[in-house]
Amino acid sequence: NPGLYIVATPIGNLQDVSARAETTLRSADLILAEDSRVTSKLLNHLGIRKPVAAYHDHNAEKVRPGLVAQMADKAIALVSDAGTPLISDPGYKLVRDARAEGHMVTSIPGPCAAIAALTLAGLPTDRFLFAGFLPAKAKARDDAIAELGAVRATLVFYESGPRLGKSLAALAQGLGEREAAVAREISKTFEETVTDTLGALAARYAETPPKGEIVIVIAPPGEAAAASDTEIDAALADALERLP
Ligand code: SAM
């Protein structure tokens, strides 16, 4: 059927492509990819030969109207280099405009590094805030961290190996000592998850930047740190009442 298909692809292990993702790509009229070289690896693996067009941050504005118009009679699949499109990847404006034109929009869910990392960290998952990549510049990065300090939720960041040490140091500085996890190369040969306090993780990765793709998961602020004045007053009153 014509419309827009948001297709999640593997984040490393090609076996993670779902049966429905495969069927959808096989029957699509056009596949939109961030980088056609990356996507052709997956398509070759599946033995799929379909027209692939580029849809990335640098051409999206220009090509979007034409693509949306084509959705009236074509099945168009959007993929990204890895994982779920739109998650720290292009696509939300394409979905928005496709909807505005009344086209069918559907999602073929699958791998997502943020969700996989949450399942590995052993930290609370009932409330989490996905913060994507921290800004590259120190001032903007520290401001972003300060803004997240009071959020009572597990925090999830995407990161690259070379930047990991500096980011962890800034996070330890800005958020204080919290339990955290560094999940690396999920679903690949050298998958590894290291859990420790932020400070200890910062020290560990300060010298030797690890290789590969990384997700940082950080515990919510501790109960003591997050207690409000009212909660502290109530606890004090309670303690005073129990005093002999
Ligand atoms: N859309 C993707 C998703 O659904 O996870 C994320 C795209 S974002 C541009 C790329 C970042 O995702 C990497 O820098 C890394 O932080 C994270 N990532 C992707 N694959 C990963 C993997 N196999 N292991 C750990 N992190 C990964």
UniProtKB/TrEMBL annotation:
EC identifiers of the protein: 2.1.1.198
The subcellular localization recorded is:
Cytoplasm
Catalytic reaction annotation = cytidine(1402) in 16S rRNA + S-adenosyl-L-methionine = 2'-O-methylcytidine(1402) in 16S rRNA + S-adenosyl-L-homocysteine + H(+)
> A single GO molecular function, which one?
rRNA (cytosine-2'-O-)-methyltransferase activity
One Gene Ontology cellular component annotation held by this UniProt entry: cytoplasm
Main subcellular location of this protein, as a coarse class:
cytoplasm
Taxonomically, which superkingdom?
Answer: Bacteria
Top EC group: transferase
**Which PROSITE patterns does the UniProt entry name for this protein?**
RSMI
Keyword match Ion transport: no
Where does the Tetrapyrrole methylase domain lie?
A: 4-201
Similarity section: Belongs to the methyltransferase superfamily. RsmI family.
Function per UniProt: Catalyzes the 2'-O-methylation of the ribose of cytidine 1402 (C1402) in 16S rRNA.
HAMAP family given in the database record: 16SrRNA_methyltr_I
Supply the name of the protein.
Answer: Ribosomal RNA small subunit methyltransferase I
Gene designation: rsmI
